[in-house]
Amino acid sequence: MARTPVVSTALLTLMRERHHHAWTLEDLHAALAEREIAADFSSVFRAAEKLAAAGDIRKLTLEDGRARFELFDAHHDHLHCTRCGELVPVPCLLGPGNFAALEREAGVAILDHHLVLSGICRDCRTVPSPGASA
Amino acid sequence: MARTPVVSTALLTLMRERHHHAWTLEDLHAALAEREIAADFSSVFRAAEKLAAAGDIRKLTLEDGRARFELFDAHHDHLHCTRCGELVPVPCLLGPGNFAALEREAGVAILDHHLVLSGICRDCRTVPSPGASA
DNA sequence: ATATATGCAAACGCTTTGCATAGAG
DNA sequence: CTCTATGCAAAGCGTTTGCATATAT
Fold it and tell me: Is the shortest CB-to-strand distance from B63 to strand D under 7 Å?
């Protein structure tokens, strides 16, 4: 290469070290800043896109219209916690077996799926809600 | 009321008459135009939001970040055709039974879900692909 | 008069791109 | 010299809002 890709590398390191699951660009940008890496937003964007294109991370978009990035490991689905807003990974609930009947009956071909559950994550279930005693 | 809601009414009529399933604001705006209803984009937006708030229609947002509106009937999921781009309704594949184990094991509570399948819709499977002979 | 519907134009939020610079090979 | 990474600033795109006007009750 012609220049050391500081941002890409830092992003990957970050995502591997921290537990935070799905990162918005803003999350990534802020996390880099905490580590004294004052990257520009566009650089974070480009680095994330590049990593996604390379298959290192995965990009997904939620109902709220904001992009999220996560490490690209085994397929899993997500739970969007309506209380804390986190996008929590959950094991995939759907396999080919679930699609066979539909494909046959509806005459469609299913190649992939994207499932987002809405509900309350484990952490929020064990913690009193924010305004509980206020 | 204080003024006849032309746009809202027209939208509802439109969505009930045509088969087009999930409408973007642009779709709605264009369809109204075809019917000589030159509504402003913001009016279409406001009318759609109002109908959604009233429970007549449902608003959803896809990976592409664009809002879609559809008549609010029985819950169903969607197939996003990667060939023609349509968002086709398919019967819901997930019921409480699918969530029980996950809720128990992961300690979460699931209230709703949003499933989008990716694949090829029936129409596209029976028609040669756009660039097939070109 | 009052309350809702609409048009017009501008603001917004997030994403994306153009252009110039920097630095490694 | 060439090629990629980065910063800065601005453009894009779809959505949303502020304000003035129109109209039915």
Answer: no
